[in-house]
Each structure stands twice: as structure tokens, then as C-alpha cells.
Specification:
- This protein has 900 residues and is an alpha/beta fold.
- Helices cover 45% and strands 17% of the residues.
- The protein has 36 helices and 34 strands.
- Helix 6 runs antiparallel to helix 7.
- The chain starts with a strand and ends with a helix.
- It binds adenosine-5'-diphosphate and magnesium ion (2 copies).
- Adenosine-5'-diphosphate (ADP) is lined by residues 40, 92, 94, 102-103, 107, 109, 252-255, 290-291, 347, 349, 358-359.
Length: 900
């Protein structure tokens, strides 16, 4: 079996991209090599070896030979030898999973430096300082990644070895009055390397290995093991990456960005990942290596004029300083974008004036950028309409609907400082200084802003729960910026005005001091940090041309109609602006709770006979007419499905002694009698009790009043020149006879109003299908219905026999132990509830081919469920106003997927 794949000198063992086997990094290194882009030669050990190692705790027998063979190929390409004393080859050992997990696993650079190879490398490079700089970096990475983390050596003082070494370095620098790592001389670095080795032995109890081959295998093993490291596991859980995938390991010739001032290392995006603008964007550092840019230890230089930030105003750009290399890099950028048809995130290193590419991957971006990039690339002809549509995830849409800081509040707010706008949008919360604290505070139900000097992969759990992230260091390509962007989180980085005292959990920001728990507000689009809790505001989607273009495209491709669930004209207007063309569910029960209404309602419930009941309920008519007038008008000419009264009557009765006394006072009914009525109405299982159409059947006057209100509102609107379209929906029907009973009343009222007002109007009568019996007898019910709307919440409850309000006690266990795959209240249970819906659709249409069918449960806004509803031929889904854009996209994607 082949476990090792070589790439180098324009050739690669893998003829086609194989991410599953080689991981994203390995597959792309091979691909760049094949494209003729300068990539240091190397080889990839497959993900299968990782799986093998995880299962058997050892490597497959052939691995060692295959590694040696590929190493020979590198040696001949580079004309250097691994472990050679005269001309040594150094390598990096890098992780790389199928899906990129930035910084979550380990990488060791400069592998192969030992007391025997050091003199050879000094002779070759003629740069002793560089060699010792590389050496001290190797000791740091190796002792941390291989010895402490993978070999599980326990540091003696409880502090991690990396931290111990950093203390040595910081002390050394301050003793010599150095501020930057670049101030360290050759002699300094030599001394530091010795101090490091002594410290490693002392703290970890083992000697740093002085043998190149031992280093190589130590590093390979450690990188494989990092797949099961804590950070990687957390990240996988958040991103839903299966742990069976495993990581690949890339062993690659080192190129050095730390060989003096003509060397550099950098990170770039082929387009601006914060806005999506089609501009090359990046950061770099001279005389630096590897993670220096991402780790944010120095303020990085801008790649070009466009990349300049408030922090890097006076720093030279690569474009200015070395235009020749910049031009080559810019060409590579274009080549890669054209090849991959997507925005790329690049790593590059310049060794003594020569450019090397070290990584390319699909760049993480926030929702706004994702949409802009997809629309632009479509216009540029780089991708098709369908590809553009499939690129956008529901999460992207969700992100751009996030709040921003209210500009009015912002005007008068106290601006504390400004940093780099790494993750747009607004966030407000109480400051905390560690990821652990962020989690603790969130558990207590608080909103937090996580404040750090810079973030590292160890912080991701805290970053995930925080409303926003703020760092003192790092640039637009730093770890914090990258992670926040991937999650669409508000984030400000590189705010040098921050001075954090972690021991006392306080911070000073431009002379103002803040403590843990103080409120701040971030404007991640501008980089502004404000004191206090500012109000946030909904985003202005109407002026977002890219969003509008995407939605228009989605509308062109989708088959499903998108309606909204709305109970008020305001909600209806909002949803309409977001693209809803109709209301799929307007609930009427909440309309009974305002003070003057609830007393009429209660009077009706307490009434002894029909006459007094009718008198009481008719008091509600004018209110209801106004309600329906508003909502029909807001949606006209689109349809509004109005559901007649649904909940059991006891929900409207008073609960407390005081409320009962008041009611008795208002109505003149004895309070004992009220209490006895409450007792009579009590039900042991209200969900299956006297509710839905059962109310209208027992008390036809309720149906009459509501129908009259609907039709009178309709008549009024028509006279005003509007085109209202009411659809009357009878809830909780289980048999055709129930629907027939109610339909007679509704039709009667419609005729009455038409005659009285001498006009005609269109309306529909239909039912909500939310009982299994209704699905099974849908052919009979459809004889009386012009539409069905599946109430999938109740249908799930009644099909599974789960009470949605009580599943919390066992659902997590059910999901954990895989008794159930998903919460059926979130995504439709296709095998059970879905089958019933299919049956209902098929039977319903068998007797009424014109039957209009939709869904109005929570599932109407869930992309997976939408895909299912599309596949069974429903006419529309209805969801809450804010889900409307997601539903439009999901419906279009469902159509595209079904055409594949
Ligand atoms: P990650 O997945 O965390 O980005 P990488 O494997 O890409 O980890 O490596 C970490 C850093 O080391 C990156 O900045 C990368 O460019 C640098 N690096 C990796 N391999 C080499 C190499 N062969 N020569 C020079 N720099 C390297
Ligand atoms: Mg890394
Ligand atoms: Mg990388």
C-alpha cells in the first residue's frame, strides 16, 4: 500500500487532488507543484496512516521505508542531505486535515538541526545568527509539541514548557534592553539555545534529542497525535468534523524567512476576507519565520497600499519595498484563484529574495464577504450561477442579519480606542480576560466580550461563546481575526491602546481603567471600542446590493413559495421586506390578551347560555376586524392564512386570587362561581384537550365572530381599492366532518358580508394538518379544503407522542446515545412525520387536484427540512420573518440539488 506521496520540482505522486487521503494542505501543495508554482519539495503521509496509528498505536510496517524513499527524492531535488554534517537539509513537519482546522493541530519547523548539523548549515548559509535563531525556535516547538504534548511529559512547575522558555527569552531581552526578537545577536541566540536545552531537561526531565532522525519521527508521531489533542477535538465538535477522518502529515523542505532582511514570511488573501472586495490583501514580516505573523508578536507590514491599516500606516509594504517579488506573488494569486475558482488564503516565505508558496486553501470569510465574493465571481465568469448559489450557506445569511451598533447611540458614546476591524457587525457585553472565564460567565447567562493580548488555539472554546472578541495585538490575518471570520463573529484585533493586567483582571485603555465585568461595545466594522452597553440595530439589507442580487438569483431558481408566520402588521411588513410573499400562519389567540379584550373573552367563557356568550364575544368583533384589516393590508395582494382560535379556553382565565377578585368585580359574577368554572375547564392533557376546531364546534359563535371580522375587514379594504386575500384556516382537524361543520359557518358569514356590502371577494377555506388521522384521511378532508397547511410542530408531537415542552428531560440522552439522530422539532423526521406528510399530500391531491399545500411549523425555516418539503412537491413553506431570506436560499439550493 502507498502511504507516502511525494511532491517537488513540478511533479507530484498524486495526479489528481485527493483531500480525503492527503488532507487539504497536502493535496494543495501537490496541486500547486503541478501548476508550476514554486513550492519547497516534500511528501505527505496519508490520513490512512493516522487512522491506523489511532487504532493500533503503531505505524504500518512499510511506512519507514516509504518515508526514507521520499526523503531521498527531496535530497536529490535540493542537493542537500538530511542529517548531513556538511550540507544538511531541514524540514518542517506539518499537520493537514481534509477540512482546514487553522492552528488546531501542530507543526514543527527546522527539524534536523543538531550539534552535528549546525556547523554545516552555518557554512552553507554563511549566517550564524540565522542558524541559532532557527535552533531556538526548534527547541521551543519540539519541547512543547513533541515532548510535553505528545509524549505527555509533565512540566515540573505546572507551567507549560513553552511558557517557561518564553520567560527565559523575555528576561534575557529585558536584561539587555531589547524590545524585539530581531535585536538578539548571534551570541545572544547561542546562549539562549543553551539555556533552553537546560531548561527542557530540568522541567520535562528528558534531554532535547540531538539526533536528526529521532527528531523527524518524534515530530511525525506528535503531529498525528495532535489530531486527538484537546483543541482539535473542541474544534471538530463545533465544526462537526468526524473524528474518523484523521490528519495527514506533510514533511517539507524548510525555506527560511529569517535569513536576514531580504527574507520574509507572510499571509495573504486573494480577496479581502472581511468585506469580499476584489483586492489582494495581506501582511508580512521581514526576517521572521512561520507563525510570527499569525501569532501577532510584531505589528505586521502591509502587503500593498490596499492592505494598510491604522496600525501599519508608516510601515513599508512589500509592493513598495520589493516590487519584483510582489509582482510574482500577485501573479501566483491570480493563477490560484482562476484555478480554484474561489478566494484563497495563502502562506508564503521569501528566502533571500526568492518567493516560495507554502500553503493555499479556501479562505475563511464572514457572511457579507461570502455573498459578495460569490456574486462578483459569478459576474467575472469565474463560477456559474448555480455554483454561486451553492457557495452560500444559511449561516452566511444569518450572519449578515446580525445586529450592528446603532449609529445614533454611537454618536454620543465614549470612544475608548480603535483597533483593526477584523470581524464586522456589533457586539456588546461584559469584559472577561480568559477563555475559561468567558465560558463560566456564559453559563451564568451573561453576555461577554473576550479580551486578550492575542488569541491562540487554546482559547477557541471561549471565543466561541463570546459575543465579541477584542485583542491588543495581531493583524488582520492573526488567529483571532481568522477564527472570528470563520464564525461570522464581531472582532477587533491589534488595538495597541489596550494594556491588560491579567493577574488583577483589569485593563487600561487610553488612561481609562476597566475591570472584569465592565460593559463595552464593539463596532467590528470600524474597529471602534466604546465604553458601556450601546444599543444594537438591525442591518440595512435593503441597501446591500450583493444580498439583493443573491436573493433575486435564488428566487429565480426556486420552486417553493416562501411565506411568513406573522401575527401583526409590523411583522408582516418586516417579512415582506425580506421577501415573503404571503402569510402562512397568522395566529389569533394573542389578539385576545389586551386588557379590554381579555375581559370580554372571560365574560364569554363564563357565560351560561348562548345568548350571553354571543353578546360577550361580539364585543371583540371591532378589535378583531381592526387586527385583520391591518394584517391583510400589510400583505395585500398576497394571501394571509388566518388560523381561527386554537388554544384551550382555560388559558384565557385568571390564575391568581387577585385576578379572580377583579374579574368578579368587573362582571358581577361571584368569585366562587369563577373558581368552579376554572376547575371545570381544567384538563389533565391540554394539548389533546378541548382546543382547535373543537372550540368552534362547541361554540360556533367564536367561529362566526372571527369569520365576520375577517370578511368585514376584507370588504373594507376592497372598497379602499386594496386587494386583500384571506385564507381561513381551521385548526386541529382530525376528520372531514369537523371541517365540514366549520366550513358551513365560514361560508355563511362570507356570503352575509358580501350581500350586506354588495361586493364579492375571493377567499379560501382550508385546514391545518397536525394530527396523524388527518394525514391518513386527507382524501376525505380535501373534499372540503382548498388548502392544507402542515402544522409540523404539533404533527411531530402527535406522531411521536412527544410533548415538545417536556422532551428536554430525555432528548439530549436520546441524541447522545443515537436512539434518535436529530431533534425532530428542529429538522423534520423524514421517516416518520415525513411519511405522514407525503401520505397527506398524495391523498389530499387525489381528491382535490387544485389543493394548495404548505408548511407552517418551525420546520418551514430549517434548510434540511425545506429540502425535504421541496422534494415532496409542496407549494410553499412559511417561517418566521427573520428566516425568510434563509428559506429563499435553501429553497433554491434544494431545487438545484434535486436537479443533479
Ligand atoms: P497551520 O496549519 O497551523 O497553518 P502550518 O503547517 O501551515 O500550520 O505551519 C505553520 C507555519 O509554519 C506557517 O506559517 C507556515 O507557513 C510555516 N511553515 C511550514 N512549513 C514550512 C517550511 N517548510 N518552510 C518555511 N515555513 C514553513
Ligand atoms: Mg500552526
Ligand atoms: Mg498554515
Amino acid at each position: 500500500m502507498k502511504f507516502v506521496y511525494y511532491f517537488g520540482d513540478g511533479q507530484a505522486d498524486s495526479a489528481v487532488p485527493q483531500k480525503e487521503l492527503l488532507g487539504g494542505k497536502g493535496a494543495n501543495l501537490a496541486e500547486m507543484t503541478r501548476l508550476g508554482i514554486p513550492v519547497p519539495p516534500g511528501f505527505t503521509i496519508t490520513t490512512e496512516v493516522c487512522t491506523h496509528y489511532m487504532n493500533d498505536d503503531k505505524f504500518p510496517a512499510q511506512l519507514e521505508n516509504q518515508v526514507l524513499e521520499s526523503l531521498l527524492k527531496i535530497e536529490s531535488a535540493m542537493k542537500q542531505k538530511f542529517a548531513s554534517t556538511s550540507n544538511p537539509l531541514l524540514v518542517s513537519v506539518r499537520s493537514g486535515a481534509r477540512q482546514s482546522m487553522p492552528g488546531m493541530m501542530e507543526t514543527v519547523l527546522n527539524v534536523g538541526l543538531t550539534s552535528k548539523t549546525i556547523p554545516g548549515l552555518i557554512k552553507q548559509s554563511d549566517d550564524e545568527r540565522f542558524v541559532y535563531d532557527a535552533y531556538r525556535r526548534l527547541i521551543t516547538m519540539y519541547s512543547d509539541v513533541v515532548m510535553e504534548k505528545a509524549q505527555n511529559l509533565k512540566p515540573k512547575n505546572g507551567k507549560g514548557i513553552r511558557q517557561e522558555l518564553e520567560i527565559i527569552l523575555d528576561k534575557y531581552k529585558s536584561n539587555h534592553n531589547y524590545t524585539e526578537d530581531t535585536d538578539l545577536t548571534t551570541e545572544d541566540l547561542k546562549i539562549i539555545s543553551e539555556l533552553y536545552k537546560t531548561c527542557v531537561e530540568d522541567v520535562l526531565g528528558e534531554i532535547f534529542p540531538d539526533d536528526a532522525t529521532a527528531q523527524l519521527w518524534g515530530a511525525i508521531t506528535a503531529v498525528f497525535k495532535s489530531w486527538n489533542g484537546k483543541r482539535a477535538e473542541t474544534y471538530r465538535r463545533i465544526e462537526n468534523i468526524p473524528s474518523e477522518w484523521g490528519t495527514a502529515v506533510n514533511v517539507q523542505t524548510m525555506v527560511f524567512g529569517n535569513m536576514g532582511d531580504t527574507s520574509a514570511t507572510g499571509v495573504a488573501f486573494t480577496r479581502n476576507p472581511a468585506t469580499g472586495e476584489n483586492q489582494f490583501y495581506g501582511e508580512w514580516l521581514a526576517n521572521a519565520q512561520g507563525e510570527d505573523v499569525v501569532a501577532g508578536i510584531r505589528t505586521p507590514n502591509p502587503l500593498n497600499q490596499y492592505s494598510r491599516t491604522s496600525e501599519s500606516l508608516d510601515l513599508p509594504s512589500l509592493e513598495d519595498i520589493n516590487n519584483q517579488i510582489y509582482t510574482v506573488l500577485d501573479k501566483v494569486k491570480t493563477q490560484l484563484e482562476v484555478h480554484y475558482h474561489d478566494m484563497q488564503d495563502l502562506e508564503f516565505t521569501i528566502q533571500k529574495g526568492r518567493l516560495w508558496m507554502l500553503q493555499t486553501r479556501t479562505g475563511k470569510r464572514n457572511g457579507a464577504a461570502a455573498i459578495r465574493i460569490a456574486m462578483d465571481m459569478m459576474d467575472e465568469g469565474l463560477i456559474s450561477e448555480n455554483e454561486a448559489l451553492m457557495r452560500i450557506s444559511p449561516k452566511n445569511i444569518d450572519e449578515i442579519m446580525h445586529d450592528t451598533v446603532d449609529p445614533e447611540a454611537e454618536k454620543s458614546a465614549l470612544l475608548l480606542a480603535t483597533g483593526l476591524p477584523a470581524g464586522p457587525g456589533g457586539a456588546t457585553g461584559q469584559i472577561v480576560f480568559t477563555a475559561e472565564d468567558a465560558e463560566k460567565w456564559i453559563q451564568k447567562g451573561k453576555k461577554v466580550i473576550l479580551v486578550r493580548n492575542e488569541t491562540s488555539p487554546e482559547d477557541i472554546h471561549g471565543m466561541h461563546v463570546a459575543s465579541g472578541i477584542l485583542t491588543a495585538k495581531g493583524g488582520m490575518t492573526s488567529h483571532a481575526a481568522l477564527v472570528a471570520r470563520g464564525w461570522g463573529k464581531c472582532c477587533i484585533v491589534g488595538c495597541s491602546a489596550l494594556n491588560i493586567d491579567f493577574d488583577n483582571k483589569t485593563l487600561i485603555i487610553n488612561d481609562k481603567s476597566l475591570n472584569e465585568g465592565d460593559w463595552v461595545t464593539l463596532n467590528g466594522s470600524l474597529g471602534n471600542i466604546y465604553s458601556g452597553e450601546l444599543s444594537l440595530k438591525e442591518p440595512d439589507l435593503e441597501h446591500n446590493q450583493y444580498f439583493k442580487k443573491l436573493m433575486a438569483l435564488a428566487d429565480r431558481k426556486r420552486k417553493l413559495g416562501i411565506r411568513t408566520n406573522a401575527d401583526s402588521p409590523e411583522d408582516a411588513m418586516r417579512a415582506r421586506k425580506l421577501g415573503a410573499t404571503g402569510i402562512g400562519l397568522c395566529r389569533t389567540e394573542h389578539m385576545f390578551f389586551e386588557p379590554e379584550r381579555i375581559s370580554a373573552m372571560r365574560e364569554m367563557i363564563l357565560a351560561h347560555n348562548e345568548a350571553s356568550r354571543r353578546k360577550a364575544i361580539m364585543k371583540l368583533l371591532p378589535y378583531q376586524r381592526d387586527d385583520f384589516y391591518g394584517i391583510l393590508k400589510a400583505m395585500a395582494p398576497y394571501p394571509v392564512t388566518i388560523r381561527l382560535l386554537d388554544p384551550p379556553l382555560h388559558e384565557f382565565l385568571p390564575h391568581t386570587e387577585e385576578q379572580i377578585e377583579n374579574l368578579s368585580h368587573e362582571t358581577g359574577i361571584n368569585s366562587l362561581e369563577i373558581k368552579s368554572r376554572i376547575t371545570t375547564l381544567h384538563e389533565s392533557n391540554p394539548m389533546l384537550g378541548h382546543r382547535g376546531c373543537r372550540l368552534g364546534i362547541m361554540y360556533p359563535e367564536i367561529t362566526e365572530m372571527q369569520s365576520r371580522a375577517i370578511f368585514e375587514a376584507t370588504a373594507k379594504l376592497i372598497k379602499e381599492g386594496e386587494k386583500p386575500f384571506p385564507e381561513v384556516m381551521i385548526p386541529l382537524v382530525g376528520s372531514d366532518t369537523e371541517l365540514e361543520n366549520q366550513k358551513i359557518i365560514v361560508d355563511q358569514l362570507a356570503n352575509d358580508v358580501m350581500q350586506r356590502e354588495s361586493i364579492t371577494f375571493d377567499y379560501l377555506i382550508g385546514t391545518m394538518i397536525e394530527l396523524p388521522r388527518a394525514c391518513v384521511t386527507a382524501n376525505q378532508i380535501a373534499e372540503y379544503a382548498q388548502f392544507f397547511s402542515f402544522g409540523t410542530n404539533d404533527l411531530t408531537q402527535t406522531t411521536y407522542g412527544f410533548s415538545r415542552d417536556d422532551v428536554g428531560s430525555f432528548m439530549p440522552l436520546y441524541i447522545d446515545s443515537k436512539i434518535i439522530n436529530n431533534d425532530p422539532f428542529q429538522s423534520i423526521d423524514e421517516l416518520g412525520v415525513g411519511e405522514l406528510i407525503k401520505l397527506g399530500v398524495q391523498k389530499g391531491r387525489s381528491t382535490n387536484s387544485k389543493l394548495k399545500i404548505g408548511v407552517c411549523g418551525e420546520h418551514g425555516g430549517d434548510p434540511d427540512s425545506i429540502s425535504f418539503f421541496n422534494s415532496i412537491g409542496l407549494d410553499y413553506v412559511s417561517c418566521s420573518p427573520y428566516r425568510v431570506p434563509i428559506a429563499r436560499l435553501a429553497a433554491a439550493q434544494a431545487t438545484l440539488k434535486s436537479n443533479l
